[in-house]
Amino acid sequence: MDKKKLAIVVPCYNEEESLKENIPVLKNTLDALIRRNVITDDSFICFVDDGSRDRTWRIVESAHKEDTKHVKGIMFTRNFGNQKALLSGLEYAHNRDVDCAITIDADLQQDESKIEEFINKYNEGYEIVYGIRKDRKTDGILKKFTSYAFYTFMNMMGARIVPNHSEYRLMSRKALDTLELYQERKLFLRGVFFDTGLKSDHVEFDVKKREHGDSKFTYMSLMKLAAEGITSFSVRPLRLIFYIGIIISLVSLLWGCWTAYRVFILGIHAHNHIDYYEIFEMFMSGLQMLCIGVIGEYVGQIIQEVKGRPRSIIEKELD
Ligand code: UDP
Ligand code: MG
Q: In the sheet that 71-76 helps form, which strands lie side by side, from edge to edge?
């Protein structure tokens, strides 16, 4: 089997503590693969500093100075978010004609020793290899529940994604070529790769505990990610609003007929359901707000796409 040129792309946001420990680990992994002739000697790791406010960039710079050939870096002007950091690293790799690229988190919660398995799958002919978490032993009950809710809800709303897969993934050159065809500003990478329909397989791995620093994602940012993912891949929520509208209209029509029957045929005028009506009205106005909110999400997406602003802005590159 020919050796492959590999890029390992690592998004970093305020990861100074993780990087100090993990750059050597990743470098050892890369070196071992080069030594064993799995990958070529011009394979590299690309760290993307997503506007960190700590010493992340300095650490990347000094690792680059030590080994310019294998350690590369991109620094954003500000924080653009993890999807943009991943995308920028993948573009960097694509421009350097890699055979395949793997994305992995800076905290190395994803087991880096599985990288070779990803490459083996690629050698078997798969264009995309998804890393799938084997279990969630390190997560608390709440995190387990929210991530279950996340995947279920996303799939129900029509944004199809691979369960228990985050961003630990191998992409072939063909997959990276295909990624370039997706011109939208707000890219939801997990959805995009699933959408390509390219031949894919998966590798299972155990999640490790985050050793340094805190998770950069809050429940708010996860909700934002879910909303973006759904609105960019599916119009099912809009259709749902349409159906809700039809059902409510039908119910009120029947209710109207029933009331007319009571008043005109049975002659019953008094109604003492006032509380009942108030609750119903409140429910209806809540529902309307929710529906407007859903439409608003789509309008917001349209504005972002129409403006066509850059996905991210690079301050410096280490080549
Ligand atoms: N990250 C990023 N930009 C952000 C937030 C996170 O580049 O705005 C990076 C972060 O440094 C890490 C990866 O994305 O390498 C995943 O983040 P984290 O480990 O905090 O997420 P979790 O594992 O808790 O889902
Ligand atoms: Mg993490």
A: 200-205, 128-133, 169-172, 100-103, 6-12, 44-49, 71-76, 314-318
Ligand 1 within 6 A of CB of 81:
yes
For residue 166, the SS3 value is coil
pLDDT, residue 75, reads 98
Q: What is the pLDDT of residue 55?
A: 97
CB proximity list for 29: less than 8 A, separation 6 or greater: 8, 112, 113, 115
Atom of ligand 1 nearest to the CA of 85: 7
Of the residues 216, 311, 314, which should be mutated to test ligand 1's pocket, given the most ligand atoms within 8 Å of the CB?
216
Please give the model's pTM, rounded to 2 decimal places.
Answer: 0.88
Task: Report which protein residue has its CA nearest ligand 1's atom 3.
Answer: 82
- 167 in contact with ligand 1, CB cutoff 6 A: no
Token readout for 233 is 């891949």
Dist. CA 227 → ligand 2 center (Å): 21
Indicate if ligand 1 lies below 6 Å from the C-beta of 49: no
pLDDT in tens, 121-133: 999 999 999 999 9
Q: What is the pLDDT of residues 49-88, one digit of tens each?
A: 999 999 999 999 999 999 999 999 999 999 999 999 999 9
Confidence of residue 94 (pLDDT cuts 50, 70, 90): very high
130 bridge partner residues: 169, 202
Residue 275 confidence (pLDDT): 66
Among candidate residues 67, 59, 87, the one with its CA nearest the CA of residue 213:
59
Q: Which of 217, 219, 224, 312 to mutate to test the pocket of ligand 1 (most atoms within 8 A of CB)?
A: 217
